Amino acid sequence: MAELTNIRSPRVKAARRLTKRAFRDRDKAFLAEGPQAVREALTIDGVTVELFATADAESRHPDIIGAAAATGVPVHRASGEVMADLTQTITPQGILAVCRFVHVPLGQAVPAGARLVALLAHVRDPGNAGTVLRTADAAGADAVVFTDASVDPYNGKCVRASAGSLFHLPVATGAPVEEAVRQAKEAGLRVLAADGAGTTTLDEVDLSRPTAWLFGNEAWGLPPELLALADEVVRVPIYGRAESLNLATAAAVCLYSSARVQRQTLHSVEDPTTSPR
Amino acid sequence: MAELTNIRSPRVKAARRLTKRAFRDRDKAFLAEGPQAVREALTIDGVTVELFATADAESRHPDIIGAAAATGVPVHRASGEVMADLTQTITPQGILAVCRFVHVPLGQAVPAGARLVALLAHVRDPGNAGTVLRTADAAGADAVVFTDASVDPYNGKCVRASAGSLFHLPVATGAPVEEAVRQAKEAGLRVLAADGAGTTTLDEVDLSRPTAWLFGNEAWGLPPELLALADEVVRVPIYGRAESLNLATAAAVCLYSSARVQRQTLHSVEDPTTSPR
């Protein structure tokens, strides 16, 4: 197999431009780096357009190369220099997929019957957004909505921080916050805004009902007009002397608290002899 | 006041060398950047050696300059170039303190009667370690122990991520993991290792007792010989399809779960008419 060694070759340039949002939006495609993300992408029909892999990565990940062959996804062998050019990371993992967009319309991400959803209102740091996506997946959330004021879910850092979760659960992107909140309410979800300004604490709020958590900006939280959209504003209690929690940490505590209470509630409804712990 | 404009001046060089661990250990001092950290440092007697501030930061933070004057801490006005040289951040906040070490001996950080402690076993990323410190503070933990295989708590990125919490609760550093675990057990704490390999989940384990959480490395968790030191190995349940949680997220879920259950337990003991929520 001929190795791509020239960072100016048309194939490499076409992939590299996907590191910029304008080109991602135009091509409706993005880059997913690393064996974990590539493996996940290959499990979904029609998502992976092509792979780039160094010779070393090919020999380290025969399962991925095999899965690509089985689904007819072309694998281009790339030099270390080309890979470094495409991945924008300090220590590239040697394998990268060009993927078609995976997001779904808002109504499909947040349908009637959803029980736990994360709405990102003004989350600007891609690492934070990806971490919240990963945590929402772990907590068994039904979907994550990136509203139009939040970072692009296909940003390379966000994809990396999501650790494959971008491919696991429905993600919607681009809707205004107001529309996302309206959709959540129409789907029967209670909208809880997570904000240090809340008068209700996480220990006090009823978490047994289907819930959409609204998370704001890393530095300044949620502005009053967005807090006003929520059914309730809830703060994570600070038991010590910290001024606040960081966004991804607060989201983890909120999403896991909901998951725990919802599971206890479901459990006690399904099996009345088992008391919730 | 004369402004420091030369990055080669002895005063600036003496401060800058504290960006390196070897010099921090020699001088028993470190740098705390930003108004929040500096404000916290000034609240503790004898911690702050001197401040560096740009003219702009001085006018923006008269409270800090006032507090320094009141406690006899010298303030050196620094040019933007000097500040950028000292802070190593892309957007320096214009104010920086040289502080004396604040850690305490292990036995003082984890005394008999402690109820919630975080032990960092092999946490290597300073941002993660600082975030766990901030979260432990928020969850009302009694102390955080940075063992000898973990990052230096005085690393600039760790201090920044801790958002002032380094000054809020007792921190111990440098003890081997084994010694930290032994101390926790002697202080009457149950040692729970947080690891995806755990057979007990966070929903099942008894969190009402005084607990020391042992957290491992970002990438590879806790090795068998450290898991064996714990009273129990506990995993955060994954309800969705994520492979795992990131370290700071998992720590947040564990520490907040402990805090919630301990508070409910205390509450129900103190007031038997109130049932735990």
Automatic annotation (TrEMBL), chains A, B:
Q: Does the keyword Translocase apply?
A: no
**InterPro entries cross-referenced by the UniProt entry:** Alpha/beta_knot_MTases, MRM3-like_sub_bind, Ribosomal_eL30-like_sf, rRNA_Methyltransferase, SpoU_MeTrfase, SpoU_subst-bd, tRNA_m1G_MTases_N
Q: Which organism is it from?
A: Planotetraspora phitsanulokensis
Q: What is this protein called?
A: RNA methyltransferase
Among SUPFAM superfamilies, the record links this protein to: alpha/beta knot, L30e-like
Q: GO CC terms for this protein?
A: cytoplasm
Q: Which PANTHER family match?
A: RRNA METHYLTRANSFERASE 3, RRNA METHYLTRANSFERASE 3, MITOCHONDRIAL
Keyword match Chaperone: no
Domain RNA 2-O ribose methyltransferase substrate binding as annotated: residue spans: 31-105
Q: Name one Pfam family in it.
A: MRM3-like_sub_bind
Provide the GO MF annotations for this entry. Answer: RNA binding; RNA methyltransferase activity
